[in-house]
Amino acid sequence: MSNSIWSDLMSSALVGTDRRRLVLPGTDGPLAGVLSALGTELDPDGLLSAAGAVTVARRAGQAAARPQRPEPAAAETDPYAPVAAQQRLAALLSGGDAEIDRTTARELAAEWLRVAAKRGLLAGPAILVALLDLGSSDSSVRASVRAVGGTRLGWLALQGPGRWAWAVQQEETAQPSDWDTGRAADRVRYLGELRARDAAAGRDLLLEAWPQEKASDLAALIAACGAGLGPDDEPWLEKALDDRRAQVREAAARLLGVLPGSAYRQRMADRALACVHVADRRLVATAPTECDDAMRRDGISVKPPPSVGERTHWLRQIIEYAPLDCWTAYDQTPAGLLSRKFDDTWGPVLRAGLTRAAITQRHGAWAAVLILDGIGRRDMNELRELAAVMPEPDLAELIAAQLRRKVDAVVRFLDVLPQPWAAPVADAVLECLADAERRRSGWWQLLRHAEWGFDPAYAPRVRALHDSLPIPDQQLLARFTTMLQIRHDIHQELT
């Protein structure tokens, strides 16, 4: 009855009692006694009084929910981590260790989770709520939390608040419906996955949709065809170079540039060699004076960015997009070419183009030589991009050698290295720390990187080095030594 009265009250309140007269229907119970005192036909004050009385009646009469007891969680089949390891994780999650700050404790907890997941061990049920809260605030640990949470984590997430929903959501592969109705990113993802499975099917799908696609979407879809790229793709990519839209031409050119043996690569090599020649062992470059139709067809953009001249822009692109192996025409090795003197006018542009070429073509040998050529005088972000394309063993050897020469120059490369660091790098760091003459040069950054870069198995060697140093130097290594010991203990407890 109160619901019916409430609807009448709302209708009159919305349009006004002058336009919609409100005559209360008859009711019973305690509410009848209150409403009868207001009269049969209500004025505005009476409407508000009746609304207050009906609101109280609705709330007071609401029946309590009767939640059903959930089914018990399925039993775990994987083993739990040892008790000492469980206690370690609980302490890290609670921030109860006075030796380390809360941020460091969370990073150590993340390492605990990674190691346990790799070893197929589960966290105990008592820690699952804390892990769900950790994953809710830090998406980077969710995969590890799911792995160590077992079936009970998913069960608990279903009973808990909505912020735990990530624990029961699974990564889904792209579906055909994503291509038809998905967002641009979904369609790119679907096409990329299809190309990886069946390159021809992906190509046919793209060519069928080509006329309906706008330029930006089409450029992204062409880039997705880097998966499964092969000689059969050259004809349609060459045809794409005739598209009137610059974004489409540039996307096609980038793929043709990494397609071995393509005609595009030969055209770009010819252009680059026509712009550069050797005179008295010097590399002399001549920038083009115009961006002609053939250059535009091959994805050379005409308009330079702000504060860059047109000829500089065109020359840098030609050098970047030319295959790096074309420079064997002048020198058999990258080191041989870069050892030559560059002309003063276009030399910096030539170096910049070669650097971008090494990065975009992911050429490890060129990257190594360009790093050595640019340490201390080139943009640090660019050097880090070069380091990222080098094979891990080669990068480790290069950094170890440079650490032995000068710590300051290479310490900022260290976070590019995969963790734990390879033995040559860790050994070189220990040599630097043991050398009294070099120990203070760049030591602070070096030690901060080493806390997480060192393999925990190095803990005994680091402790021995720490104990062998004078007291002032021991204080410098105190945090590094403590952190490595804690990480070592985590790995041992999860054995």
UniProtKB/TrEMBL annotation:
Domain of life: Bacteria
One Pfam family from the record: DUF5691
Disordered: region residues: 61-80
UniProt xrefs under InterPro entries: DUF5691 (IPR043746)
Record field: compositional bias (Low complexity): 61-77
Name under which the protein is recorded: Uncharacterized protein
Organism: Catellatospora citrea
